[in-house]
Batch of 3 targets.
Target 1
Amino acid sequence: MAKLYFYYSAMNAGKTTTLLQSSFNYQERGMNTMLFTAAIDDRSGQYKISSRIGLEASAHLFDANLDLFVKIADTLKSKPLHCILIDEAQFLTHDHVLQLSSVADFLKIPVLCYGLRTDFQANLFEGSKWLLALADEILELKTICTCGSKATMNLRIDQHGNAVKEGESIEIGGNDRYIALCRKHFMEKLNAQIKS
């Protein structure tokens, strides 16, 4: 039985590297994968998934208007698909998660989604919320805080390294804009910023 998987973590835990390795493993065995990434995140260029350690692969883009089930079903008409991999899954919509559930249930193709659980204010992203609710398997990829504890939070920082408390939920960035921290240090940094 095909399943819908959600692999989540804080920033810099290797989600994209793990996704690309999974795709490589399928392809090495002669199986076809289909990769998607969010159109909103163009840090690596359009139609590309890139990891911080230099791995990359071509990908299809998704935005709110794309019906993932239809796109995948149309691709199945020309070639078999053995796995669907979604990068930046936090940017999926509720409809997307329902569509990916149908891919697993009715097209019988495993779907592996990789993304952040929460934004810089500790709020669930829409895609993550619905993946947590509907995924068959939920797995946490781990990274560490500056103190050595497990990092679970994403602190947004300004150009001077100070915590940012307010702003839009979505702001694309990497190490220049975000730091993965444990909850204790996340809260300390936010409270220090509030008092200053």
Target 2
Amino acid sequence: MNPIIEVQNLRKTYGQTIAVDDISFEVAEGEIFGLLGPNGAGKTTTVECLQGLRKPDSGRIRVLGFDPHTQAQALRRRIGSQLQESALPDRIKVWEALDLFASVTPNALDWHVLLEQWGLAEKQKSSFSSLSGGQRQRLFIALALVNNPRVVFLDEMTTGLDPAARRVAWDLIRAIRDRGTTVVLVTHFMDEAEKICDRVAVVDRGSIAAADTPQGLITQHASEVRVIFTTEQSDLPWLVEIPHVQRVTRKGPRVEVEGSGPVLALVAAALVEHGITPADLRVEQPTLEDVFLKLTGHNTGE
């Protein structure tokens, strides 16, 4: 891996509160790297330190070879940033904001293209104050990309976007990655991280609980598969004897079989053998949310 971001033993406190506690990780060039965790986990503080917006108490950081604290100006010309909390003057128009940001950037992208890509073309003459929350979010993302950055930081990128807009945003972020830009995505949405990130670090209470590809984390920490069906037949002791079955629970007619490997095929075959053919037989694969719950023991706050 050719790291474009290197973080070693990063620590940041606010009084008695430890926001980031001895975090270390690397991000490879041209990947989408997710910092995944609940609100207050330390994700935003971490990326603010990476951008030179906050000074860490200790640790070593390099982004594109620059020290964000001592070489912040040189670094910011090469990165893009969509912060969790951002604002613009109420009366500035969408096109004016993009044109202004592009005018101070030597290698700016064509902001007209960004307007189209992020669904803002019809709002280009609208004032910032008239935009909805989702439209403001899309504008901030477009502004983060207008300088054609080598690394872009996106903090809670899809908060406020409807489901259709979220999926469009995911496709655009993949396209940005495919053009060679490294993306650091801060999110507490498990489905978002699982679908678009090449690697993720699960952050909880200021520390990294685990880091790997989404599937790697699932395989390592939550490999159990749940086979679910309903039946009126009450006598099912043979289910626990099926290979790869670890646990069977029942509530009324609903039966849940927990196992690993080819448990779905084995359970289905055993059901047919015993004359049971449930029309609602289905499987639930483990997700990143299952991983997070197992690693941290609490909900993500979505």
Target 3
Amino acid sequence: MKVGRACGKVILLGEHAVVYGVPAIAVGIDRGARARATPMTAGPSRLHIRGWNIDVSEQESGSDLARGFRALLDTVRASALALSPMAVDVEADLPPGAGLGCSAAVGVAIARAIDPQAPEAALQERAMAWERVFHGNPSGVDTAVAARGGCIFFRRGASIEPVPILGGTLHLCIGHTGTASSTRSMVEGVAQLRSRNPELVEKSFQAVRSLVQSARVAMLAGDRFSLGRLMDLNQTALSSLVISTPDIDRLCAVARSTGALGAKLTGAGGGGSVVALVPSPAVAHAVVAAWKSDGFDGFATSVEQEARARMLESETAP
């Protein structure tokens, strides 16, 4: 049996614009997915996702999960790797449709369990084949973070650049609206808005580009206060794309009033989740408690670049 693990993600700045070549900054979180691949003697490979009551064969045609699984396996086969039938068992501790990279984490975990020695680029390529089934035109940032962990500066079509986490651990809170969101639908909605009002969308994207670049400088300086303020401004830019919701706005407002340095939606919007940057674990606890008293769910997480990378490496050994 071979085991693979992958991170979930939050985008600190840059979602939606990243689809059009604008940079984004994203981090891996300590919730994600784990996969176990066991060789079978015969038959098509099978995928089981615990907790979701899902069990599919790669030969099924009516299920997106089956099609995604087959697309991933076909990409592995195209690399000339001799691949025997596999039974793949997956556990995910991220809600789907929450903007936390659940599908990418599952895809990377499956790819890593099937071929633990695969280089990072191959893992991402295989997981992207899986992602395209669900999201149509994904930027690739989710799979990059799922495979690498830590913090990255991502630009579509360019080399991924690690961003050092200076100034100590990055403390975050993740709040969930309770409403799932479709990345495909939200990306298509922004594309339609761009077609109807290109000047508005381009202005928003240029603002996001500037914010991402400034956030990178703030992170390299260990300046959490400025990073939080830039996240707030990114939320304003995203709201102009009509992808925020009253629940997202409420989660952001509650986080800020409880001591967060900044808060914004993360992922596609239209529901899903919010990420808040906080100065300490104590404030993280207070923010999560405030969300829960307001009827939302949430959790605290922290990011340390090198520790995350080592954890991923240590858990991929067969």
